[in-house]
Amino acid sequence: MRYFPIFGEGISMCVGKGDRTKFWKDKWCSDSPLASSFPHLFRCAVNQEATVADYLSLNENSVSWSPLLRRNLFDWELDDFLELMSLLLVQKIDVLGEDLWCWKWKPDGVFSVKSMADKLDNVGGSESPARQIWNPLSPSKANFLVWTMALDKCLSRSNLLRRGIPIPDASCVLCGTVEESTEHLYLHCPFSLQIWLHSLKALGANWVLPRSVKDHLCSWKLNGLSKRGKLMWKTIPAAILRSIWAERNSRIFCNRYKDVDHVIQRAVGKLISWISTSGEFRGLGMSVLLQSCSWWRL
Ligand SMILES: [Zn+2]
């Protein structure tokens, strides 16, 4: 049974002109439709049946996106919107081609048993961060976000500058000392580093943070954990990374500043809410879940 999700994961819509692909309802830019990954935004969509072509425009050689929403977003919805835009900006679209269903485990997009077998051979594990990132315990939108961080395609200020988007101040809003690159923002900023070091210390783990988010996710391993411990351990990076992202956005867009302790507590809250929906933890009750996370509390 575990192979069927892999099969489903391999099929997706390869978007060309975008006129045959439903923007919100088809699975085209990641492993689930955007309507299920971003339900709040989907509910605000002017047209829930819109195609990709409806929101896509080509300016010279670059593609821009304008998903139309019925109303202005609340502060707490901005994170979702930025995550959606991050995801859209990393899509490679051939606007002259047709929309086609494709098999993504083979370069020509055509299904073959061999390609499926090759994929299954890799199920046992590899050094790629994909298995760490595409974690069923964390929501798809959190996985998308971590994925764009691992690819260094997220909307950090350095990346916006690289895309030619003028930014009046490119410095990191968490420390204000250096330019906000992906690796600085999420790993090496003194603010973020405190969060990682606190968490690793509380877990009894001790290592130097690698240079990139991708390397960090690849090295996120700890032996001797129970089954539940492994699931929780695997989910921690997404909870921390998403909480750092939320704090960064809150400072930039809402001028609200929280300290390191608050961001750690926010990450713990996310971790608990995510794992509490999994079968392995369901029915344990909030007090047990809080106790499970006690090693991480301040
Ligand atoms: Zn910084």
TrEMBL record:
InterPro entries, per database record: RVT-Znf
Start and end residues of each Reverse transcriptase zinc-binding domain: 111-196
Official protein name in the record: Uncharacterized protein LOC104591337
